[in-house]
Design brief:
With 336 residues, this protein is of the alpha/beta class. It has two domains: 203 residues, Alpha-Beta Complex (inorganic pyrophosphatase (n-terminal core)); 125 residues, Diaminopimelate Epimerase, Chain A, domain 1. It is built from 14 helices and twelve strands. A hairpin with a 4-residue loop joins strand 9 and strand 10. Helix 2 runs antiparallel to helix 6. The longest helix has 14 residues. Bound molecules: guanosine-5'-monophosphate and manganese (II) ion. The site of guanosine-5'-monophosphate has 11 residues, from strand 11 and strand 12.
Length: 336
């Protein structure tokens, strides 16, 4: 591990820096990474943002989006940048398996690894850690890192503020999860003062759906939603054929699970989708119910208490059956 003083000394001179984030980046992954990017480029560093995979269209308006390198599209260039980097920032993830093949390149790279994250149980691969599971978003930790650790809040310009606001907004469910504390609202107010146009960000992220996405959502709610009142659980299952027939692109399925959770009395919602190579599960829960425990114990995954994910190598039908077979174990908590 290096100290904050050592890190500050390093950042005082131009460095080659890579910023990376998790597989299928969401609003917080891109917001924290591009927010950190917009900060670091002002200090004269040579900075690259590398994502392991592509990400949704509704995030592609973020400031400096055109500078992002997608590993699966530019593998050689990404590996070269990782190998040459002095510093590698890892935003919004804490195990290298969350970034697929890119993780092994980062593990082998000689640059210092700096983790900025809010997930449970970090893997020990980093040289500096700004980690807090109580943060509502990695973007909140980037804000804290710049303002309080580095004490360079004056470099939070409009681009930085816009990216960080986006990360905080998306990971806090638009400021409504318990993690959206009064301190988070104060940070949001500060970011608005620094140039984040909250109304525009909201519109660009949430009112920017493709027609396919909306029709797919309608199909899921009308035809694919199963409510199991005995366990206050709702499940939406989607086949690979349905993904194809609705021309589903990256990001089009995001948030569908929240509609299942919005039903009166539902404590646990699952969105289970056949991604061909694997079946993916997205779980959401209310209150104290530990969705991440189910993902970790049974589906090779993890996440936060109220928003978690995992995968299964069984087929779709078998995965759904497995999920249902787990519910009795949690009956008391689900019926509380
Ligand atoms: P989503 O359901 O939106 O894909 O993921 C919700 C949250 O669950 C993510 O923010 C992430 O923390 C976690 N998550 C999703 N998929 C996985 C996975 O495969 N492994 C782990 N460890 N966490 C996951
Ligand atoms: Mn996050």
């Amino acid at each position: 591990m290096i100290s904050l003083t050592e890190l500050k000394t390093l950042l005082a001179a131009p460095q080659k820096i890579v910023i990376t984030t998790h597989h299928k980046p969401d609003g917080d992954a891109m917001g924290s990474s591009l927010g950190l990017y917009a900060f670091l480029i002002q200090k004269g560093h040579h900075v690259s943002v590398i994502t392991p995979t592509d990400y949704p269209d509704f995030l592609q308006w973020l400031p400096n989006n055109s500078d992002v390198i997608v590993y699966t599209e530019s593998e050689d260039r990404a590996v070269q940048l990782v190998n040459e980097a002095d510093l590698i920032f890892c935003c919004d993830f804490n195990t290298l398996s969350r970034i697929n093949e890119l993780g092994e390149h980062i593990r082998a790279a000689s640059g210092l690894k700096l983790m900025i994250d809010h997930h449970l149980e970090p893997e020990d691969f980093d040289d500096y850690r700004h980690w807090n599971i109580n943060a509502c978003a990695a973007a909140q930790l980037v804000y804290d890192f710049i303002k309080n650790e580095l004490q360079e809040g004056e470099l939070i310009n409009k681009d930085v503020a816009t990216c960080l606001y986006t990360g905080i907004m998306t990971d806090s469910g638009s400021f409504r999860f318990p993690s959206a504390t009064s301190a988070v609202y104060r940070i949001a107010a500060d970011l608005i003062d620094l140039g984040a146009e909250h109304w525009r960000i909201h519109q660009l992220v949430y009112d920017n759906a493709s027609e396919n996405r909306l029709r797919f959502l309608g199909h899921c709610l009308s035809n694919k939603l199963e409510i199991i009142r005995d366990f206050n659980t709702a499940i939406i299952t989607v086949t690979a054929e349905e993904l194809k027939s609705f021309h589903i692109a990256t990001g089009d399925t995001e948030g569908v699970v929240n509609y299942a959770l919005s039903i009166n009395g539902i404590k646990l919602a699952a969105f289970i989708v056949d991604r061909t190579e694997k079946v993916k599960l997205s779980l959401r829960s209310t209150g104290d119910f530990p969705a991440n425990e189910i993902c970790k114990k049974y589906f090779d995954g993890g996440g936060h208490r109220n928003a978690a994910g995992g995968s299964s190598s069984l087929n779709l039908e078998e995965t759904v059956a497995k999920f249902k077979s787990i519910l009795p174990e949690y009956k008391t908590q689900l019926l509380q």
